[in-house]
Design a protein that fits this description.
The protein is an alpha+beta fold. The chain contains one helix and seven strands. The strands form two sheets. The protein has a four-stranded antiparallel sheet with strand order 2-1-6-7, with no helix packed on it. The protein has a three-stranded antiparallel sheet with strand order 3-4-5, with helices on one face. The protein is globular.
Length: about 80
């Protein structure tokens, strides 16, 4: 599945949570399409082959277009 960039302002919010070491509750779709939740700190945001990823402090790595919400704030449409 090709990567769909997330909203630019939401990406900025993720960076702020990472910088401020804000505890986050992530709701996302796993590889099978099932909804999952995980809590922790965002340790890193990075890009590989034009796809953006988030790494949590517990080691979970997630492609950003699989995110549904963080801290109860839904991820809006993609960046224009």
């Amino acid at each position: 599945m090709s990567y769909q960039p997330i909203d630019c302002n939401y990406y900025d919010r993720l960076e702020a949570w990472a910088t401020m070491r804000t505890p986050c509750l992530l709701v996302f779709l796993d590889e099978e399409g099932a909804q999952q939740e995980v809590s922790g700190l965002i340790a890193d945001l990075y890009t590989v082959n034009k796809a953006e990823y988030l790494r949590m402090d517990n080691g979970l790595t997630l492609r950003l277009d699989r995110l549904l919400s963080v801290n109860g704030i839904p991820v809006p449409g993609q960046c224009g």
